[in-house]
Structure formats: C-alpha cells, structure tokens
C-alpha cells in the first residue's frame, strides 16, 4: 500500500516586511518540510486588505514577499507558491463558508478583538478574515498547517467550519492540524519581551526585518530588553522572557541543542549573549539577503514563477470549489 503524501498549506500577508518572527515561526518550518510533502504556500493579498493598505505599497510588497520567500528557501519546484487573488476559488469558497458560519464564532476570535480595538470603524473584512483563511486551507484538502502560535485559534475555527459543512452537506473536507513549533512559535518583540513581534509596529528596536543590515541587527539586539538576573538558560518564567527569547532566536539560527547552547553561555554575561545572538542572526540572514537582492531585480521572472504557481493551485482548488457548489445545490456552469 502506498501512503498518500501529506498536503501542507500555509499563508502569509504581503503587508510589510517579513520579520524574524514570521521567518522562525512559519517560513523556516515551510522550508524544512519541503520534499516529503505536497506544499502550498500562498501570499494572501485578499487578507492584507482587511486592514487599510496603500495600493502602490501592496503591489510592491507582493513581489517583494515572493522574492523573500524564494530567497529564504521556498523552492518553486517543490512548493506551489502563488498569490491568493490569482485563484478565484478563495473568494468564492469564503462566500460559501460565510453562509454557514455563525457570527458569534467570529466575534470570539482574539486576533479580531485585538485588531478591532485599534480601529475607529471596523471593516466587515476584518471580522470575516478567519473564514477566508478557512477557505484557503479547506480548498486544498490540507492535512497540516504550519503556523506561529497566534494562528492556532484560526485553525481550530477552520476545523469547526469544516465539520459544520461536512455535517450539513456530507463529507467534503479534511480536518486540518495546526503545526506549531516549540521554539519559535511566538517570537517576542526585542524592546518588549511581553509583546509579540509584529509587522505593524515600526518602532526602531521592536523587530528585526529579514533584510535589515548587519549594523541595524547589532543595534537592535544590543538594546534588547533583558532582566536584572545573570543566568543564561531557557526558561518559561515571564520575568525572564527577554533572555529566553534571545536564546530561542539563537537556537533556531544556529540549529544547536538547548543543552549545547546553555553550556556555551555558562558563566558569560548578557553582553556576550547579545553579541553572539546578533552574529548568529546576521550569518543566518546573510544568504537570504543576498539572494533577495538578486531576485528582486527580475520582476518578470517572479511573475512567471507566480503564474506557474497559480496554475498549479487552480488545478486543485477549482474542482474543490465545484464540489462545494454542487453540494450546496448550485447548478454548475458547464466547463
Ligand atoms: P501573517 O502574515 O500575519 O503571519 C505569517 C506567519 O508568521 C507567523 N508569525 C509569528 N510566528 C512567531 N512569532 C511571531 N512573532 C510571529 N508573527 C507572525 C504567523 O503565525 C503566521 O504563521 N492569518 C495568517 C495568514 C493566512 C494563513 C492562511 C495561514 C491566511 N490564510 C491559511 C495559514 C493558512 C497570518 O497571520 O499571516
């Protein structure tokens, strides 16, 4: 008996420059999982416009993100890399799922509540964001969804929506599993280890962007908030969150074991920790930055890669949306 390879789907918004939280929580997992599974990675521009975007910036950032993902190791030969709006089934699937999703399920989402708090007038798309995300995942019969911890609730909601559709219309969807790493699931802000590193915080010192210069990385890490203690050990104690965050970043960039890292830093001070973390990040990001600088000079090649990805994605998503429409009772257009 041959086992069907697992389907993996994940998405990322083209709303601002990729930071090391996105890279370590999500992208590095996607790269490491390539080869044995069937991978779909989607640049979710429909999601990005749930928050106000400047059109020229959104346009530029979509290609920049494609270039960065490829530079970070996403291989278009092994992964279907595509832009969400190029595959119409995502918006159509969202509509069908909207019509079976109770409003109360969406109002409970912590990310919605958090983002809505900061808006004067809340857009409908922001509330609907997780239903579109459910459509993304379910259209590909995805078994696994590798994400950072902040997305766990959205994947659980996806399972609830899938279960509801299945019970109303018969078995249609695979129930996906969130795949969340132990280290890197929640990379914290360097200037505030109690807040998640976020794309929308532009305060200098908050984040390290994947294409920041070595000097900028040294500047940010040197000022990272730690604590008055001395121990350089992994710890779940909230009072030691700053040091723990730096150690996780070091762990994921060097690939060393926790025991080896603690032994390396035994008897050293926070100054040494920061120097070593900064250099590990610089070395880890250097090849990505170099490949990115090269790829971004050829937008036609990026568009070609994204066009191939969209064709491959449509080949999976279109039959699925037809299956959904048929189950709901629509007369299907003849092909
Ligand atoms: P986005 O673009 O906000 O985030 C992309 C990925 O980065 C992870 N992430 C983090 N991981 C660790 N530490 C952090 N500080 C950190 N910040 C962000 C996120 O968890 C995410 O995995 N809603 C998704 C986009 C999406 C999606 C999908 C994901 C749309 N459709 C379908 C999976 C499947 C998001 O948050 O994107």
Helix/strand layout:
Blueprint lengths: L6 E6 L7 H13 L5 E6 L1 H4 L6 H17 L7 E5 L5 H10 L4 H5 L2 H8 L6 H15 L5 E3 L5 H18 L7 E3 L34 H9 L18 H14 L3 H8 L4 H26 L3 H30 L7
Parallel strand pairs: 1-2, 2-3, 4-5
Helix pairs in contact: 3-12, 4-7, 4-13, 7-8, 9-12, 10-12
This protein binds tryptophanyl-5'AMP.
Tryptophanyl-5'AMP binds next to strand 1, helix 1 and helix 7.
Overall description:
This protein folds into 2 domains: 203 residues, HUPs (Rossmann fold), CATH 3.40.50; 81 residues, Tyrosyl-Transfer RNA Synthetase (Orthogonal Bundle), CATH 1.10.240.10. Helix content is 53%, strand content 7%. 40% of the residues are buried. The model has no long low-confidence stretch (mean pLDDT 96). The structure holds tryptophanyl-5'AMP.
